Amino acid sequence: MTESVQLLGADPLHWPGWSQGSAVAIHPAVGMVPLDGAQWVVEAHMGPLSDKRERLRQLEGRGVQAVLTSSVMATLAAQNTWIRGNMHLVGFDPLLMAAAGRTQTVVGATDDDIAWLSSTWPDRTFIGAADAVGLVFTREILPIINEAVDFVARGLNPKDIDVAMKLGLRYPKGPWEWAETFGWSSVYWGLAALEDMFGPRFRPHPWIRQKVGSALGD
Amino acid sequence: MDVLIIGAGTMGSGIAQTLVVAGHRAYLTDPDGTALGRAQERIRTNLVREQERGRLVEPVDSLMTRLDTTRELLANPVDWVIEAAPEQASLKQKIFHDLDRHYPPSVWLASNTSSIAISHLASQANRYPNRLGGLHFFNPVPRMALVEVVPGLDTSADFVTAAHQLIESLGKTGITVPDRPGFLVNRVARPYYLEALRMVDEGVASLESVDRVMQGAGFPMGPFRVIDLVGVDVNYAVTQSVYTETHGDERYRPHPWQEQLVLRGYLGKKSGRGFYQYD
Fold first, then answer.
1. CATH code linked to domain B2-176
2. pLDDT of residue A112
3. From the CA of B86, how many Å to the nearest CA of chain A?
4. ipTM score
5. Is residue B249 a contact partner of residue B239, using CB atoms and an 8 Å limit?
6. Domain of residue A164, residue span
7. Beta strands in chain A (DSSP E)
8. Position A65 in a domain
9. Of B175, B205, B250, the CB nearest to A201
């Protein structure tokens, strides 16, 4: 039985979603830290893929056996090419975890992995999804935020947009509230990855690009 | 206030019900007499149910005295006319052309369109286009608290003020939104449906899984359940309208799978089959 989980690379805004309802201690850290005997490591970074690639290689170099790795920006298949094959990777959706979704999507999970995940987060169910950028939730929620941003850029009040979506369609949170739950950096990088994979319909709105200070060549 | 509602369908009767409950007088009109009769019955049934649940104090018979039906436009001016006719631009344009001719400039004219540009409708109401704008209610009207107020190119600030006053009197929240295809809510929500259709088509997950994930994240229903509930055809028409009015913006391209269901008559819960099968 895993007694603790080391959470690496997640935006601190996401940490509460990881701890909510978890049966074991979650130890978050922004950078690479001593693993303190954690049997499972989570790599939840949403940012430049070069950072993630480096971190996975470091973890493999330290002899980590298994990593729950964010697979909304790069497929699990791609991530497996980054390492030497001595580490078991299971993909997941970090925004869905941050949202404490009751049904989580995972990629490449064995029955044992599912059993571990279910015992670690007993209030969540873990179901398999195909190995695709964005998985389900991230691919749904980020373009909704992107659409809302376009209205803000045209002068609408973000709070009005949130009120409208909650009252009009009973969304649990407005797009702005979702964005601030995830952090604008995660919103940007998630959209950029979706754009890279599926085309310009996911292009991050210029307002978001300005917000996170993205520039040509990033 | 006296309000004439054009169209005795689900939206029109919902608006009429909401108006009478709020103390206004509602005149419901429709060229189809049987539709008017059905609407009256639906409103009475809904009011009785609301009363049984303790949500209404005023007796139903008393409430119903504030509801009238008519086959023609009223001769005397009302305070507001709210059009809730089928979502066809040419039909709505004709209605507003006639209303503009029929009523003096003191009568506010509003469309409950969910996706047709207000300025497009106003183009056929040239006498006083400043008194015309959008009042987009959400279904089911008596329950949903939001109304989008949509000023077109010519709509006056006074229209917007009067609209918010009317909405407030109904106990609802009005948000002023730009006259863009889909307005605010339907525009922002398009990816919820379209990406779901695309990802299932691509084999990322089953439609049941997509619904389960989104519901598990707090949405009241997954995208496929929502589409089935509102009508596969209705949802498709909104997407098609936004796509057309944005001159083919790829983000809003309708999905062929949904089109197939519409063509086959699998329109959702109302037809017994949509993305899901219903008994």
1. 3.40.50.720
2. 94
3. 20
4. 0.95
5. no
6. 137-212
7. 4-8, 25-29, 40-43, 66-70, 88-92, 103-107, 125-128
8. yes
9. B250
